[in-house]
């Protein structure tokens, strides 16, 4: 599965808008993840996960920054996220099922912030993009 | 049996009251067919599904989307009794329509996302969580009679 030219264009143009609120969006996606899928909190026993916490904001910003890196290197996401991929495989070892959950929460967050832009075609592009990112992050697991 | 807290029920019921079932139903089904095109396999007789605009404007998609979401409204009325409420529909989806239950999860997530586009800031993480629980429970209820 790879992105068409049109899908890449959608992602690049929407990222222009998203990036102005990237930290808030990353943070809200995590809040949504922990609220809807409490089992995901098991990966963060060392964090204060209450909404608004410094931990959440810092981590949300990290997630957003990584997505930004992937967007900037949209033709070589594997290259851009290579270190992150190793970290997830050897250090973090987050079960692969959770990437779908976070991806869904990212889609919900973007949809609620940019309803007019989040057409069915844009939704498809972002869903595919996040699937690709998830694949890259789990490809060194075994 | 899934247990919904009073807050979760309130979050679901109050949002549902504002949902335009016809409009949202069409968008939900349309998005399913656009974002996950393999789901079109169940709708060979729906006519033109060749592009996003064809799908989202297709009158059969809109009509069927309305039907599906109206049925979902039943779930909102019977949150404590979903398995019984959807028993017949479960058998129908298995025996007559041969739908892989995985599709119920996909549709559930489409409901969430369309609600997010319609209700924006009002669709807080807590409201989303209540709706995730409901859609997951409905998906389970619809799969319950499979054999």
UniProtKB/TrEMBL annotation, chain A:
<dbReference type="GO" id="GO:0005506">
    <property type="term" value="F:iron ion binding"/>
</dbReference>
<comment type="function">
    <text>Hemopressin acts as an antagonist peptide of the cannabinoid receptor CNR1. Hemopressin-binding efficiently blocks cannabinoid receptor CNR1 and subsequent signaling.</text>
</comment>
<keyword id="KW-0349">Heme</keyword>
<keyword id="KW-0561">Oxygen transport</keyword>
<keyword id="KW-0813">Transport</keyword>
<dbReference type="Pfam" id="PF00042">
    <property type="entry name" value="Globin"/>
</dbReference>
<dbReference type="InterPro" id="IPR050056">
    <property type="entry name" value="Hemoglobin_oxygen_transport"/>
</dbReference>
<comment type="subunit">
    <text>Heterotetramer of two alpha chains and two beta chains.</text>
</comment>
<dbReference type="InterPro" id="IPR002339">
    <property type="entry name" value="Hemoglobin_pi"/>
</dbReference>
<dbReference type="GO" id="GO:0005833">
    <property type="term" value="C:hemoglobin complex"/>
</dbReference>
<keyword id="KW-0479">Metal-binding</keyword>
<feature type="domain" description="Globin">
    <location>
        <begin position="2"/>
        <end position="142"/>
    </location>
</feature>
<keyword id="KW-0408">Iron</keyword>
<comment type="similarity">
    <text>Belongs to the globin family.</text>
</comment>
<dbReference type="GO" id="GO:0019825">
    <property type="term" value="F:oxygen binding"/>
</dbReference>
<dbReference type="InterPro" id="IPR009050">
    <property type="entry name" value="Globin-like_sf"/>
</dbReference>
<dbReference type="InterPro" id="IPR012292">
    <property type="entry name" value="Globin/Proto"/>
</dbReference>
<dbReference type="GO" id="GO:0020037">
    <property type="term" value="F:heme binding"/>
</dbReference>
<dbReference type="InterPro" id="IPR000971">
    <property type="entry name" value="Globin"/>
</dbReference>
<dbReference type="InterPro" id="IPR002338">
    <property type="entry name" value="Hemoglobin_a-typ"/>
</dbReference>
<keyword id="KW-0597">Phosphoprotein</keyword>
<comment type="function">
    <text>Involved in oxygen transport from the lung to the various peripheral tissues.</text>
</comment>
TrEMBL record, chain B:
<protein>
    <submittedName>
        <fullName>Hemoglobin subunit beta-A/B</fullName>
    </submittedName>
</protein>
<comment type="similarity">
    <text>Belongs to the globin family.</text>
</comment>
<keyword id="KW-0561">Oxygen transport</keyword>
<keyword id="KW-0408">Iron</keyword>
<keyword id="KW-0813">Transport</keyword>
<dbReference type="InterPro" id="IPR012292">
    <property type="entry name" value="Globin/Proto"/>
</dbReference>
<dbReference type="InterPro" id="IPR002337">
    <property type="entry name" value="Hemoglobin_b"/>
</dbReference>
<dbReference type="InterPro" id="IPR050056">
    <property type="entry name" value="Hemoglobin_oxygen_transport"/>
</dbReference>
<keyword id="KW-0597">Phosphoprotein</keyword>
<feature type="domain" description="Globin">
    <location>
        <begin position="3"/>
        <end position="147"/>
    </location>
</feature>
<keyword id="KW-0349">Heme</keyword>
<dbReference type="InterPro" id="IPR000971">
    <property type="entry name" value="Globin"/>
</dbReference>
<dbReference type="InterPro" id="IPR009050">
    <property type="entry name" value="Globin-like_sf"/>
</dbReference>
<dbReference type="Pfam" id="PF00042">
    <property type="entry name" value="Globin"/>
</dbReference>
<comment type="subunit">
    <text>Heterotetramer of two alpha chains and two beta chains.</text>
</comment>
<keyword id="KW-0479">Metal-binding</keyword>
């Amino acid at each position: 599965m790879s992105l068409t030219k049109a899908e890449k264009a959608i992602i690049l143009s929407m990222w222009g808008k998203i990036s102005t609120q990237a930290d808030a969006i990353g943070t809200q996606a995590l809040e949504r993840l922990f609220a809807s899928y409490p089992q995901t909190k098991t990966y963060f026993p060392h964090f204060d996960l209450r909404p608004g916490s410094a931990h959440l904001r810092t981590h949300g910003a990290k997630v957003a920054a990584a997505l930004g890196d992937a967007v900037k290197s949209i033709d070589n996401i594997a290259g851009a996220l290579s270190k992150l991929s190793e970290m997830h495989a050897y250090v973090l070892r987050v079960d692969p099922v959770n990437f779908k959950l976070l991806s869904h929460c990212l889609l919900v967050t973007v949809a609620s912030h940019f309803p007019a832009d989040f057409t069915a075609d844009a939704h498809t592009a972002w869903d595919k993009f996040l699937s690709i990112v998830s694949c890259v992050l789990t490809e060194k697991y075994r | 049996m899934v247990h919904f807290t009073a807050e979760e029920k309130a979050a679901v019921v109050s949002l549902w009251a504002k949902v335009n079932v016809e409009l949202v139903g069409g968008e939900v089904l349309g998005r399913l067919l656009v974002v996950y095109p393999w789901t079109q396999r169940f709708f060979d007789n729906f006519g033109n599904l060749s592009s996003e605009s064809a799908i989202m404007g297709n009158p059969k998609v809109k009509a069927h989307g309305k039907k599906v979401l109206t049925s979902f409204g039943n779930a909102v009325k019977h949150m404590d009794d979903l398995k019984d409420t959807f028993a017949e529909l479960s058998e129908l989806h298995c025996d007559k329509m041969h739908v892989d239950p995985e599709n119920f999860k996909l549709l559930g997530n489409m409901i969430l996302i369309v609600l997010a586009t319609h209700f924006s800031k009002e669709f807080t993480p807590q409201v989303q969580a209540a709706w995730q629980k409901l859609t997951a429970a409905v998906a389970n209820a619809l799969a319950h009679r499979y054999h």
